Amino acid sequence: MKNFISLLVLLFTAISFAQREFHVFPKEANITIGTPNGNGSITNPWDLQTALSQSSENVNGGDVIWIHEGVYTGRYRSVLQSTKTNKVITVSAFKNDKVILNGNVDDKVNYVLQVNGSNVIYKNFEITYLGDFSRLQSDKNFKAAVGINHQKGEDCKFQNLIIHNIPGSGFGSWKATSGTVIENCVIYNNGYQGKRGHGVGIYVQNQSDKIRQINNNIIFNNYYKGIEVWSATSGSKLEFVKNVNLTNNIIFNNGLPAGKHVDNLIIASKDAEGINIAKHIKVLDNVLYHNVDFTDNKNYGYGTSLALGFSGNAPVEDVSVENNIIIGKNNGLNILHAKSLVFKNNITYTGYIHFNPSVLLALNSSGLDM
Questions:
Q1: Neighbouring residues of 94: CB distance < 8 A, sequence distance ≥ 6
Q2: N or C: which end of the chain has fewer CB within 10 A?
Q3: CA–CA gap between residue 38 and residue 45 (Å, rounded)
Q4: Greatest C-alpha distance within the chain
């Protein structure tokens, strides 16, 4: 009898920790329709917002939410959160289904997908605007948006996503989202036109000691910069531009849709008080470039591929730039303010490299490896 009870306990434990699968279909599907009243089964599926609104009592670590083929028109907010140690929730397109989140709707919120939970993987779907929409800030009905707004929640992963044609930034990954991994994504043609181009591929911050990983992405032709590891805030009394690794990304021709090549990658802070400093950042094995014809004198305009530092009060610190290919126009490599920097084994092809005097002073006094 004791052995039988032990077997039952093991069986119930296994069942309780088994992976569960839930299903999502569009509200406008031809055959199976997702609804708020579903239970997530294949025969009675959820709509997308209902699935993303589930509490950890209903969907938890080890569970998978399958999004079936179709166009999901709307704005969505995810509060999914795994409370199980070393187990994540997965939100993915079903098998090889083509899933598109279409944000081209009239809505008060300024994102297509907002993520507020922890320990969730989002993968294998597309985020875009379909149909006609304006990219001109001067238009009366224009409203900027962001593809993914990761506002809060730790240890999420974003994999194999295509984020494009959003009238704003492709991805915002903010300071309270430590441990985030963004990898194998394609992010392009996002932004809008004002007095200058607006909208970056990825805007990333981090206030935690956990490392933020941005790996193996292709980011190009956004209206403003490719990746900003950056804060424009001054006087925050808090460090939140730190602990970021960027590895094996291809980032090119950002700014081009707005008529001016700008930084493919910038790492800096604007904090005049020198508290919020961009630090502990690695840039390894990336390709950063603007299309350049050096035989054409008209091509010698501003076109930075990599910019380090912005404010003299907040020079970058403990930044490693190694084994990258950096191609720009004039000013292709722009190092304005640096306290400690390793720069080695890079191939740089540009009209000239810009160092501010403070960088040269630091080089002489601190022995920077350039």
A1: 23, 66, 67, 68, 69
A2: N
A3: 5
A4: 89
**The tokens 């730790």 sit on which residue?**
154
Question: How is the beta sheet containing 157-159 ordered, strand by strand?
Answer: 21-24, 64-67, 89-93, 120-123, 157-159, 181-183, 212-215, 242-247, 279-284, 317-322, 341-344
DSSP conformational letter for 301 = S
Q: Per-residue pLDDT for the chain (370 aa), expressed as one digit of tens each? A: 555 555 444 444 444 457 899 999 998 877 889 999 999 999 999 999 999 999 999 999 999 999 999 999 999 999 999 999 999 999 999 999 999 999 999 999 999 999 999 999 999 999 999 999 999 999 999 999 999 999 999 999 999 999 999 999 999 999 999 999 999 999 999 999 999 999 999 999 999 999 999 999 999 999 999 999 999 988 889 999 999 999 999 999 999 999 989 999 999 999 999 999 999 999 999 999 998 766 665 655 678 999 999 999 999 999 999 999 999 988 899 999 999 899 999 999 988 888 887 776 655 544 445 4
- Would strands 171-173 and 181-183 be described as parallel, antiparallel, or unpaired? unpaired
- Name the nearest CA neighbour of 288 among 237, 347, 241: 347
- What pTM value is reported for the model? 0.93
**Dist. CA 150–CA 15, nearest whole Å:** 33
How many whole angstroms separate alpha carbon 76 and alpha carbon 101?
9
Backbone angles phi, psi at 359, to 5 degrees: -70, -45
Sheet holding 265-269, edge to edge: 76-78, 111-115, 146-150, 171-173, 202-204, 227-231, 265-269, 306-308, 333-335, 353-355
Task: Give the integer Cα–Cα distance in Å for 318 and 278.
Answer: 9
Specify the length of the chain in residues: 370
CA–CA separation, 305 and 254 (whole Å): 9
CA distance 96 to 73: 20
The C-alpha atoms of residue 370 and residue 349 are separated, in whole angstroms, by 16
